[in-house]
Amino acid sequence: MRITFLFLLFLFLVSCAQKKDIGQYDSRTEILAHLRKLSPQERAAFFKQQIQLIDTALAEVKDQTIYFSFSMGLSAGDPKEVNWDTVDWNRMDIQNKAFTIPNPDTLKAAFESYNNTLKAVQRFGLPHSSFELEAADDRISEMGQLTTSFKQLFQGNKSLDSSKVGILPVSQALVEIQYQLPHELDSLVIAPDAQTVKYMGYDLRIDTINPQGIELDLPLDLYHNYLGHRGKIANNKLVESNSYSAMPLYGLHPAIQKQVKSVTQLFQKFQTAAITDAALENFEPQFTEEMFQSLKKLDYYQSTIEKELKVLLGNNKDADLFAVIKKLREYIESNGEYLGPVEQRLSFSFPYPVKQFVLYFGKSNEIIKAERRIPVSRGTAHNYMTYWDQNSKKYGIVDSIGHVIIEPRFKELTRSNQDYFFDSSDSIDYFLNVKDKKLEPVKTGYRFERNLLEDLAVFKNKKEDVGVLRNGQEEVIPFKYTAIEKQGKMFVATYTLRGRQTFELYTLKGDLVETPLLSTVDMLVDSSFMVRSKLHKFGILNSSGKLVIPMEYDKIEGLKTANWVYATKGREMFLLNYQNKRVDLPADLRYLDISRSSEGMIPFSNYDGYGFLDLNGKIVIAPQYSNITEFYKGRALVRNAKEELFMIDKNNRIVKKILLAPSPDGSQRLDIGFSKDGVGYFTMGETVLDIAGNVVHIALDDLN
In whole angstroms, what is the distance from residue 70 CA to residue 57 CA? Predict the structure, then answer.
């Protein structure tokens, strides 16, 4: 499913409610003292008035939501046609099947895999750091509801008080993971012309709808059971959407709403024609401090939070929307006790009109839990990061172990790269001088693009030309290129000459390598460079920029063996090393498989099949196989004309016969793939073998 975002939507419905009477009181004690002074009839009137005010306020805040995201729809009531994202629907797979729940055992296995790959990231801040959870395997989140919560933080084996962490580095966290495992489905069907939807006792709000897509809001407890969706087209076939997003709507924090509702229930319990002193004594212990504080927070939300949000949102159409989003997120985070997610907005569309939207919800859920002590890292392993001081509302810079490098004094500061930071409030790039603890503005008129080395980075000038500056000041590579990349021990600079791409090479010190005009530069496995001149002649530069093979050949291809290449000149084909040793190849050679050359063994073929040459051009394994792999750790996987599979060594001795069912037509390619940790495996179709020739259960997608 392809997630697509089209444009920014702000929705903020503001009430004009008057200040609540409860807001006149500074403490619970003051309210109780006031009630004691009233007559029984006045107490009843007071409770009745408060119930009405609270009910009115809760009804109003229900529609006071902030929705800021990249969205697929327009705000409610806008008559314009919705510009739904589309793709070539002729290429979409029409699936005539319902949304199905995987086997519970499969989901439980995915839950365990999620737990085992879970880690946390610490975002430094004052007075509190924030933490985010990440999992290498998040398949479980696609089916059912997954919730996580931090139980305890640790520095080594020492437990930390979460309220006092600040910018102390946390090494581990105890996390509780809870998964709502669905066992059966329920579905909600919505027609494209629907105006309202009722489901499970809820009146669901439709923000935007047309035959190709819908935006609707789900209460959080209903969203917790949401599993997925399909569209039903005219022939009753079910199709998948091509665009989907789910974004929270923020409003008065659900915890406040819950407490306030408990207040109205308490007031209703004691609301009689007259509240006696005895009844009041019974009321006082039930009216808790938490209840009083929730009423104060409701009052503060309507008297202050609403106004501040209106100022943040503003009416300036020219405002930087990304900046507004950033400020809103920071505001919500700093006012987390008042603002929280109250609903979830679902937005999905289809590549062509549907006659029904079908949403699936889980039923008969099973709750499974686990606790894990997981590692905590800082950012993405960067040495220096920005941090947010909630008191001063400013940004500073801290290192990976929590030492302050730059005090918080910047309104807007983001990390561009390891040593460079950008202040968007004044559009200035800075270089971080760690030694002197300074942020130094980069050279005037230059904009940071990309880091290359510790003190070297690519910048762009006002003409949009790129070059390289040291520490944001000293020019190392001139500003006349369209791109500069570090490849091995060289910088490859690209520019356009008479409409054609041209290259120049620089050493890491910034020295220009003298070469003819180059139209091609490709780095080989040994970090040397195959280069082609504008005269279409090929040569080799070593990793220091020295021409080790002159530019006089018609074609050059690098072997997987260092310091050797395959070359042609006219009709001649031969191997060359960097000392210009030339090795002629057999006259009856039909094909040389350069891509599989490794460990000094080069696959070749003639009319008898595949075999191997060494770097002296000598045939060490005669052509006899129908399919082969390259050598890896002295072994290769081969198939003979009888469709038999063998593991052989470099002397063509059979190490092991592989007993696998042959492919029907012998077409399954033999190959080698490497895991993320660099271990090689032999493959035949979907079958994966280790170096000993044993079948191992590794997915091909996990190999490259």
Answer: 30
Mean pLDDT of the chain: 85
Exposed (0-12), middle (13-18) or buried (19+): which is 399, by Cβ within 10 Å?
middle
Instruction: Write the DSSP assignment of 348-395 as a string of letters.
Output: EE-SS--SEEEEEEEES-EEEEEEEEEEEEETTT-SEEEEEETTTTEE
Is 700 strand, coil or helix? helix
Helix ranges (H only) for 198-357 are 220-223, 254-270, 277-286, 289-300, 306-313, 321-334
Structure tokens at 36: 């004691």
Contacts of 312 (CB under 8 A, 6+ apart): 324, 327, 328, 331
8 A C-beta contact, residue 623 and residue 610? yes
Phi and psi, residue 499, nearest 5°:
80, 0
Q: Which helix (H) or strand (E) holds 111?
A: helix 104-116
pLDDT tens for 574-627 read: 999 998 899 988 777 778 888 889 999 999 988 889 999 999 999 999 999 999
pLDDT per residue as tens digits for the range 499-530: 899 999 999 999 999 999 999 999 998 999 99
* Residue 212, number of CB atoms within 10 A of its CB: 21
Q: How far apart are CA 510 and CA 36, in angstroms?
A: 84
Q: Which DSSP state fits 191?
A: -
> How many Cα atoms are found within 13 Å in the side-chain-facing hemisphere of 599?
11
| Residue 355 CB-half CA count within 13 A | 7
In the numeric block, which tokens belong to residue 190? 């919505």
Interatomic CA distance for residues 232 and 101, integer angstroms: 19
* Distance of alpha carbon 124 from alpha carbon 400, whole angstroms: 9
Query: Minimal CA–CA distance to 20: which of 44, 41, 51?
Result: 51
DSSP string, 622-666: EEEESEE---BTTBEEEE-TT--EEEE-TT--EEEEE--PPPTTS
Residue 507 pairs in a beta bridge with 490
Q: 153 φ, ψ to 5°?
A: -115, 150
Contact residues for 424 (Cβ-Cβ < 8 A; gap 6+): 323, 412, 414
CA 529/CA 515 separation, integer angstroms: 12
Strands 654-658 and 670-674: unpaired
Question: CA nearest 215: which of 361, 382, 6?
Answer: 6
pLDDT tens column, 318-338:
566 667 777 777 788 788 888
Helix or strand or coil: residue 308?
A: helix
* Residue located via tokens 């022939």: 235
User: What is the rounded distance in angstroms from the CA atom of residue 491 to the CA atom of residue 484?
Assistant: 7
| 473 conformational bin, left if phi > 0, alpha if psi -120 to 50, beta if neither | alpha
Task: Write out the two tokens for 649.
Answer: 């060594």
* Nearest residue to 690 (alpha-carbon basis) of 638, 632, 643, 651: 632
262: burial class by Cβ within 10 Å (0-12, 13-18, 19+)?
A: middle
pLDDT of residue 629: 94
pLDDT tens digits along 684-703: 888 899 999 999 988 888 88
Residue 350's beta-bridge partner residues? none
